[in-house]
Amino acid sequence: MADYNLIIILGATASGKTRLAVQVAGQLNGEVISADSRQVFRKMNIGTGKDLHEYKINNKIIPHHLIDILDPGERYHVDAFKNDFYHAFETIKSKNKWPILCGGTGMYIHSLLQNQPYTAIPINDALRSELLSFEKDQLVELLSNYPEAHTAHADRSSRKRLIRAIEIAAYLKNHDIKEKITPEIRPVIFGLKNQIEITRAKILSRLDQRLENGMIEEVESLIAGGVPKDILVFYGLEYKFITNYLDGLLNYQELKSALGIAICQYAKRQNTFFRKMEKDQVNIHWLDASFPAQALTQQITDKIYSKV
What we know:
Blueprint: E1 6-11, H1 17-28, E2 30-34, E3 56-57, E4 60-61, E5 64-65, H2 78-94, E6 98-103, H3 106-113, H4 125-131, H5 136-143, H6 159-172, E7 187-193, H7 196-212, H8 215-224, H9 229-232, H10 237-246, H11 252-279, E8 284-288, H12 293-304
Parallel strand pairs: 1-6, 1-7, 2-5, 2-6, 7-8
Antiparallel strand pairs: 3-4
Helix pairs in contact: 1-12, 5-6, 7-11, 8-10, 10-11
């Protein structure tokens, strides 16, 4: 018997996470839970890299969860992900199958591994609008006016995170947080890592394929379907840059160049976040993403059932 009840496969964009998760699911009789903040939205297939064809292995469709569950324009946040994850986790376990969480949204994965009750605190649009013009040092000063018990958690590294910290502190001033009872998870975590040059080549090649496969047309369709541009740009780099292209702010070559650079920078930030998780005592077993998926699957199964 394995000591674990959840397999997590994480990695930066274009590392081959989905392909590996599907291989592992096929080998171990599992189902995949997506940990991607954008793939929850319908009609956003190419830009979010859903690659749904990858969920078919040996003429069998591997069941997947938390993909295509919301319409574009709707909101999704960490606490909603946690609720949806636990529901999918228990559903899969009730079938005596392996839950395999797969994705690159480190914040979502980390929220499951750490006790973070504040993810349940709702967004305060009025407060956010009020703080939008504040400089970082002003936000730090404002945060210092709240009790330390409500700000000890705060990440002061950016304006965005400071605003969220103030939002949390303001909420706690008048509300209590009730502890949620959630299913116990005993995860084993695997990370895929490539050399920087290989990651960059994969990102640029995949970008070319997605542009050829209609990514620009997908964005045009979303806009024509009523998704406001100011919301669309928050759904990721692809939607932001293509919206700028459609508005005439970039030509096609500028779009390809700028978007390629931005995605490579994003992959670097993902890996930085994974290192932060390790500093928070999250044990990640790193795998060489250049190895064949079958070899990586064997490494994962060996680890899961090892008594060491």
